[in-house]
Design a protein that fits this description.
Blueprint: H1 2-13, E1 18-23, H2 25-30, H3 35-42, E2 46-49, H4 52-60, H5 71-85, E3 89-93, H6 96-109, E4 115-119, H7 128-136, E5 142-146, H8 151-159, E6 168-171, H9 175-180, H10 188-192, H11 196-203, H12 205-228
Parallel strand pairs: 1-2, 1-6, 3-4, 3-5, 5-6
Helix pairs in contact: 3-8, 11-12
Length: about 230
């Protein structure tokens, strides 16, 4: 986390761009078949492990990662960094109601001035070029895209060049929903134990059972196949 924050600050000061993404067990399984997602992840500049299973796998495969860097934790740390350094952020994604609630919370907990702009995530393909143009011209140093995978990875990979005026671009998944209070995050002990996925499963079992139970089994299979190599 510390290294990532230092890298982001450095790229903003040097007026360079970093395309950041995260991987977890589910995303690693998905990119085995989704070529667009795989390209969006592999061609990012910085990849963090947002999933304790990835940390465990890295150790098993003798390429240990230092720690899990959850996307939502990086997001809130970057909001604090923006407040400290007077950086500007752009918020893209979620419903209009969630985005409004998130904006109010950021203005209360951080600084109102750090928000360069915001737009909900329910826009058409035809509207996309204009939204990208508005983000590029907003003066934002950081862009946070709250969409599901693979939509956010493909969006950022597709528009990376058009967004070169923005120094740091990142997908944050459901972070807007959590911070705005729409959904709850797992307790700290579940986060540190690698059980955050199970907490989400308990919240929405019908929607999440296939993603987590079948997806986790596929991930374990991938890890052991790699170990045998």
């Amino acid at each position: 986390m510390k290294e990532t924050l230092q890298l982001v600050s450095q790229c903003i000061e040097q007026q360079k761009q970093i395309h950041h993404t995260v991987v977890n067990a589910g995303k690693i399984v998905a990119l085995q078949k989704d070529k667009a997602l795989r390209q969006g992840v592999n061609e990012a500049d910085v990849i963090n492990a947002d999933g304790q299973a990835v940390i465990w796998a890295s150790k098993l495969l003798n390429k240990p990662l230092k720690e899990r860097v959850a996307g939502i934790d990086l997001f809130t740390n970057l909001l604090a960094l923006a407040t400290e350094k007077k950086y500007k952020v752009y918020l893209l994604g979620a419903t209009p109601e969630v985005l409004e609630g998130l904006t109010e919370i950021i203005q209360q907990q951080y600084e109102p001035e750090i928000i360069a702009g915001a737009h909900h995530g329910y826009f058409s393909t035809e509207e996309e070029p204009e939204i990208v143009k508005n983000i590029a011209n907003s003066g934002a140093n950081m862009l946070f895209v709250a969409m599901s995978s693979p939509k956010k990875e493909i969006f950022l990979h597709t528009h990376k060049e058009s967004l070169k005026a923005v120094n740091f671009i990142m997908g944050v998944g459901g972070s807007f929903d959590v911070i705005s209070g729409k959904t709850k995050r797992a307790p700290l002990w579940m986060q540190s134990s690698g059980l955050e996925w199970f907490y989400r499963f308990l919240q929405e079992p019908r929607r999440m059972w296939k993603r987590y139970l079948i997806g986790n089994a596929k991930f374990i299979s991938l890890v052991f196949k790699e170990k045998l190599k």
